[in-house]
Amino acid sequence: MTVYKSNGDSVPAHIEKMAESVKAGNVDRREFLAMASAFGATTALAYSMIGLAVPTEALAQEPKKGGVLKVAMWIKDPKDPRTADWSEIATAERQTLEPLVKYTKDYTFEPYLLVP
């Protein structure tokens, strides 16, 4: 079994060489940051190795009020509201239909909006 030990807050030599290549413009900064973090460098250490300031915390902006919210939903062809067998049909009808009576499974009607 292999046991890995801490290297005392230092990164491997090839990561230090890669940092020099980033400074020279030969290696992409993102590639270096990925490799440095994989080999144990913190964000602050990796950025300081290539001479950049550590990014600041991103703050949320005030949401913009107003506007239009567009929502799309797949709807099957509507049919008799009493026999809606798809949730999409029932959802669409629920927004526009409010029956006077409710049709029950016993083939009878119960008052809904129509109060006896």
What is this structure's SSE topology?
Layout: H1 13-24, H2 29-38, H3 43-49, H4 87-96, E1 101-103, E2 109-111
Radius of gyration: 32 Å
Strand content: 5-15%
Largest sheet: 2 strands, antiparallel
Q: What's the helix count?
A: 4
**Order of helical and strand elements:** HHHHEE
Find the structural class using helix and strand composition. Answer: mainly alpha
Strand order of the largest sheet: 1-2
Mean pLDDT: 80
Which shape, going by the Cα principal axes? elongated
Helix content: 25-40%
Stretches where pLDDT is under 50 for at least 5 consecutive residues are none
Number of strands: 2
Q: Calculate the terminal CA-CA distance, rounded to whole Å.
A: 82 Å
Brief overview:
By secondary structure, the chain is mostly helical.
How would you portray this structure in words?
With 116 residues, the protein is mainly alpha-helical. Among the domains are: 13-49, no CATH class; 84-111, no CATH class. It contains 4 helices and 2 strands; from the N terminus they run H-H-H-H-E-E. The protein is elongated and about 85 Å long. The mean pLDDT is 80.
For this entry, give a set of tags:
mainly alpha; 116 residues; 34% helix; 5% strand; 2 strands; two-stranded antiparallel sheet
